[in-house]
């Protein structure tokens, strides 16, 4: 700590720790003084380190310290070097010299002992493993995706813009976690046992990248490609139902059951991870001892002195500057009063804005429903042409136009708080997108199922969701090109202004939530849709980062986004993930699968695959009797579902209560610290008043006397601190 080195030189510190190591070494192995010759006894006059610092040079002190460190055990030596108030370079030099083989050999030879080969090999292995561990840790730290890019964005644009890119990184991790079980237990198994083609496979034309149809339909991309047979053994003579009869006592890999349980397990893992992330983010954003509002701590304790590169120091300087701007802006916003007339005007504008937004949302939902009905009545609705992109184009245009309308209304409302403005925009855009997705869910599961019962309607829904993702990504590119780049060029070339557009956090975050909701909706019908979402997120990160650096400017009103990550994860969990889970549960339990494709072609519902599998295991023998019991307890019994839901809610509730309790304790401790400070001020004032009273009572005091009378009068040290003016003094 710096307070331990105030007023002391480096030589004095080394001398002190040299003497400490000497005492430690002599305490463990100290011979009797009578058995040592007088000439061999150490003398403090030869090493006058603490009494006279000018006798020996600093290098000699350092070498003596190294010799003494070499004589200590390994654990004690590391602890000693770690606690020295020296720089990292000095500590590294002392550690290297104390571990020097030459120095160890000389020290051991001086004691008359030799290091055995086994011990030398042990030390070499320990050092090699320690160095390997440090290299792996530094490699993992450097291999984190977009580490420097996120620091650069946070330093130049603040925590508000950084929260968008952190949320994008979180979505990337969620999709990768969902894709792993799908690849391992579903896509990989079906690719290893491909079914017989039902017809000629069309050639790849390039249009499939936009429409998702064509040759993609005959791959593991969609639901219809997966078979309803047993894949763990050859099927010599399938029955009329298309099922292979398993051998007695065998445990086959049932593809319908694997499809259903893999998708369910992927959703369950995503739910657990999402709840944990939301709980952890809540604890981080509302954590105890937060630096919110503590400007002195930001000024004096934020700089990282381990940064040595000029580029990294520049990024850290920008980050600290932006953080100070956000803290000052938040403090000014709390201190700024608002008149009653201004509050009334703001409430009126908010009401009018919400009426317009709700009207626009209802209009967009009705327009999507009407256009989807028109697309159903068209004879080319089941085709594979470009006309299939009509509905995704209409929905993307409505979403983009409504987002610009909401942004204009927010400008007219003139919110005092930029945080409130972002939250308002997020709520309005979320209501719009959830309404549109609700209409689309009705269109897919109610209208399309009845219209496309003969073909594979699951493939059509999967292709439709793929098209929505692709078209949404294209509109994102166009918005970055025309909404940011062209506006910057017009502002600089034509208007002769250096003002750049700001990064719209609310619209971009809702685009991420919208795309992730589409991915969750389509996992059942297209198991490789998370891979498409991963590729989309990767491209989106680099496109948005390049557009942000070149075309956007930092927010004109800086604000501290301390709770934005928690808000984003909450919106991702409850409206998005919960809605997708309800949609898929309805498709699994209520909707009849297609009779010509997919693993559930012979069943009334997808859920019946579990019941059929249980009956088959019961007929197979007693070797797998525990699996039907497990299926009955975990799947058919609703108690387990309620128990898991109750546990998740209990974890969230307990975490919230723990954080609240810790914040209350910290608030009480802060009040106690403040009271102790006031007590110290009170005691100092009383001491000063007593001292002045005593000085006035001494008539013969001269100016040559010291200011502190306790140096000459020991009786004044026990003087009562209560002043005569104290009401407690009688």
Our count of helices gives 21
Order of helices and strands: HHHHHHHHHHHHHHHHHHHHH
Largest sheet: none
Query: Helix/strand-derived class?
Result: mainly alpha
Oligomer: single chain
Tell me the number of strands: 0
Poorly predicted runs: 1-7, 30-55, 102-113, 234-250, 702-730
Radius of gyration, taken over Cα atoms and rounded to an integer in Å: 37 Å
GO molecular function, one term: mechanosensitive monoatomic ion channel activity
Protein name: Transmembrane channel-like protein
Subcellular location: Membrane
Membrane topology: Multi-pass membrane protein
Overview of the molecule:
The structure is a single chain. This protein is an all-alpha fold and 730 residues long. The chain has helices spanning 10-28, 58-70, 74-82, 88-98, 101-110, 117-142, 147-192, 208-211, 255-285, 295-301, 310-335, 340-377, 390-413, 418-451, 457-494, 505-522, 529-551, 564-589, 608-620, 626-636, 638-696. Mean pLDDT is 78; it is low at 1-7, 30-55, 102-113, 234-250 and 702-730. Residues 456-562 form the TMC domain. This is Transmembrane channel-like protein.
Features:
730 residues, mainly alpha, 21 helices, disordered N terminus, mechanosensitive monoatomic ion channel activity
List the helices and strands and how they pair.
Layout (H helix, E strand, L loop, with lengths): L9 H19 L29 H13 L3 H9 L5 H11 L2 H10 L6 H26 L4 H46 L15 H4 L43 H31 L9 H7 L8 H26 L4 H38 L12 H24 L4 H34 L5 H38 L10 H18 L6 H23 L12 H26 L18 H13 L5 H11 L1 H59 L34
Helix pairs in contact: 1-2, 7-9, 7-11, 7-16, 7-17, 7-18, 9-18, 9-21, 12-13, 12-14, 13-14, 13-15, 14-16, 15-16, 15-17, 16-18, 20-21
